[in-house]
Amino acid sequence: MPPITDRHLSRATGSRMFGGTKRGSWRVPGSDQRGAGSVVPLFFGNAILADEPAFAETYLGSHPLAKAFLTAHKPFPRSDASLPYFGVDTFSFIDSRGDVTYARYQILPVGGEHYFADADAAKKSPDYLQSEIRQRVSHTPVRFRLVLQIAQPGDKLDDPSVALSSALRTVELGTIAITKAVADNEAAQRRLLFLPNANSPSRWRA
């Protein structure tokens, strides 16, 4: 794919990987849009990366949710620190009685959401988001609220392309603080490659 700048109108959906190791390895991919491009991400990725434009057009023509996800207007964030991130995977949480609750993670900026108008974003440098977040985190921690959105009856738990119902029931879990930026971002991204099997359900029983 050709490189897409931070200020291009067709920029890809913002996504980040969040994780930790204190209670075993856990990794949560978050998107700044609710939902995902496909039930099976590989199909969506293959369509977007296809050499033949007709293949992508055919795929999007027969998958309205994928087309809506890809073509939705995405306002330009003032910072990666001012974007919300919505988990696309549904996790099961089992309490001491054996009752199961299904939920998806949300990572929400403590300082709220802030965006540029398209005209103002067009004046920014091509990598303004990367530059801004490095400068910001060098002066002060970037904080996000870690929240669980509880699934409601009728929600499609096994379909990441469909967001959970808008009747939100959430549980506050804590705060994520980002205190520094890595020196080699590209190498760090390779190390953080999302591996679903890295999440061990047995470690998350209440």
Report on the structure:
By secondary structure, the protein is an alpha+beta fold. The chain has two domains: 15-33 and 75-204, Catalase core domain (Catalase HpII,  Chain A, domain 1, Beta Barrel), CATH 2.40.180.10; 37-71, no CATH class. 24% of the residues lie in helices and 25% in strands. The chain is built from six helices and nine strands; from the N terminus they run ββαααβββββααββα. Strands 1, 2, 4, 5, 6, 8 and 9 form a seven-stranded antiparallel sheet that branches. It has a two-stranded antiparallel ribbon with strand order 3-7. The termini are far apart.
Can you summarize this structure?
The protein is of the alpha+beta class. The protein has 2 domains: 15-33 and 75-204, Catalase HpII,  Chain A, domain 1 (Beta Barrel), CATH 2.40.180.10; 37-71, no CATH class.
End-to-end separation in angstroms reads: 43 Å
CATH homology superfamily name of the largest domain: Catalase core domain
The major beta sheet can be summarized as: 7 strands, antiparallel
Q: What is the radius of gyration computed over CA atoms, rounded to a whole number of angstroms? A: 18 Å
Number of strands: 9
Mean pLDDT: 76
Portion of residues in beta strands equals 15-25%
CATH C-level label of the largest domain: Mainly Beta
The level of helicity is 10-25%
Structural class: alpha+beta
- H/E order of the elements? EEHHHEEEEEHHEEH
Q: What is the number of domains?
A: 2
Instruction: Please give the count of helices.
Output: 6
CATH architecture of the largest domain: Beta Barrel
Low-confidence stretches: 1-5, 202-206
- Global outline: globular
CATH topology of the largest domain: Catalase HpII,  Chain A, domain 1
